[in-house]
Amino acid sequence: MKKILLAILLLLLIFTGVIAFKTITAPNLQSKITAIPAPALTDKAVKNFQQAITYPTISFGDASKWDSVPFINFRNFLETTYPSVHQKLTREIISQYSYLYTWKGKNPALKPYILMAHQDVVPIEESTSNQWHFEPFSGTIQNGYICGRGTTDDKINLISILEAAEKLLKENFEPERTIYFVFGHDEEIGGKNGAKKIAELLERRNVKADLIIDEGGFVTKEKVPGIAKPVALIGTSEKGYLSLEFSVNKIGGHSSMPESETAIDILTKSIVKLRANPFEAKFVASTQNFFEFLGPEMKFPNNMAFANPAIFKSIIVKNYSKSGSGNAMIRTTFVPTIIHAGIKDNVVPTLATAVVNFRLLPGDSSEMIKESVKKIINDERVIIKEYNREFSPEATPTASTETAAFKVLDTIIKKSYKGVLTAPFLMIGGTDSKHFYSVSENIFKFSPMQDPIGFHTIDEQVSIESYRHSLWFFEQLMRSCK
């Protein structure tokens, strides 16, 4: 018995020693770079951003609601507001409303950079219109914030890129390498006619980019528990997208004499069953990189957990599962988003349908998820099919953090924000950049703003201070194109 106890103690000491060694020796991947103070904003730059918000460039899921007039008016605004850009750069119009700008570099041997943003915004949900504290397309300023639909998603990037370019062109700046601007018009509905077409055009021209930056993560003081410093979250991969329609067809009838089970009952039971069976939590490459970059900056015991994620997986998963954003980083998620049934309060409907949206971890294919869902539901009365076959992209590849491209981005971020840490992460939403992996492997998803408010919801707004740093980020990035 004594020998057994000694053996257990020895194993425990070895185990503890391995954990301690990995924690102590985890390399600090944060580069030490001194920030350069951002210049003051001009009144004109602020007014230009405000004006950009007043154009309701909405992408509707229902194509019959498409309105081209705001997009044409927005184009006229850009041409008038940024004359140097439109005189000195080449602009190509794709699918009538998307734009590819080419800023020719002096050295054709250098591979280009591509800076992306999108013009379109999501609609205002009618049921929430009276909850906004300002007119959604006003571009008004309140309490140090520029307010309105599209401020954070994604006109801050688009306007910041053009403001920085206009400034540099007026200074007769010429980049060493070519810079492309890609401004799609339909990102919010998949980008198939905008960014996708531009990516195909660049591929046909054999363009290979050293770096692509699109919207994505941002600088946050609020989203990373255990870190006191601001963190710039850089998306190095993007989750996949899949929507499934559940439908149940069962004879209904008069509500005064209902059957023991109706189409609505069967449908809702299937949704409840699915929600009770979340997919397995996994640490994909982007999330492991997130641990590696931030672990050494944390205090005990968080640094220990991040240095040994396989050992402390259950603890990390428990903590990250507490929030929607945290849970989305570690597993394929799903949620019902549309439900239809019934036409009258005294009629039991024959048909009940629901749409469930899935966001797929890298490695979880659409086919695998569909088969898993069918097994979980296990009810032949529930017919399951893809809701939108035209838009079901798989998760993207993961960009390396060891490339020169990542180091450039890391440097520019730290020059733009004082005392900021950088961290790769898994982008849980979708971006236009998913179409560009034939053009570059170095695709990073980052918006240089701090803790924006109201993504896809009421009171969307971004601070004026964020806008100042965003302009400074893109100016420094363009100046680095050598």
Topology:
Elements: H1 2-25, H2 43-53, H3 69-81, H4 83-88, E1 90-94, E2 98-103, E3 113-118, E4 141-142, E5 145-147, H5 151-170, E6 179-184, H6 195-204, E7 211-220, E8 231-238, E9 240-249, E10 253-254, H7 263-275, H8 285-294, H9 302-307, H10 313-320, H11 324-330, E11 333-341, E12 347-348, E13 351-360, H12 366-377, E14 383-386, H13 404-416, E15 421-427, E16 443-450, E17 461-463, H14 464-479
Helix pairs in contact: 2-5, 5-14, 13-14
Largest sheet: 8 strands, mixed
Shape: globular
Helix-and-strand structural type: alpha+beta
Report strand %. 15-25%
How would you describe the overall organization of this protein?
- The chain has 482 residues and is of the alpha+beta class.
- It has a domain at 43-215 and 427-479: Zn peptidases (Aminopeptidase), CATH 3.40.630.
- Helix content is 35%, strand content 21%.
- Strands 1, 2, 3, 6, 7, 8, 15 and 16 form an eight-stranded mixed sheet that branches. A four-stranded antiparallel sheet has the order 11-13-9-14. A three-stranded antiparallel sheet has the order 4-5-17.
- A hairpin with a 3-residue loop joins strand 1 (90-94) and strand 2 (98-103).
- The longest helix is centred in the first third of the chain and has 24 residues, at 2-25.
- 41% of the residues are buried.
- The model has no long low-confidence stretch (mean pLDDT 94).
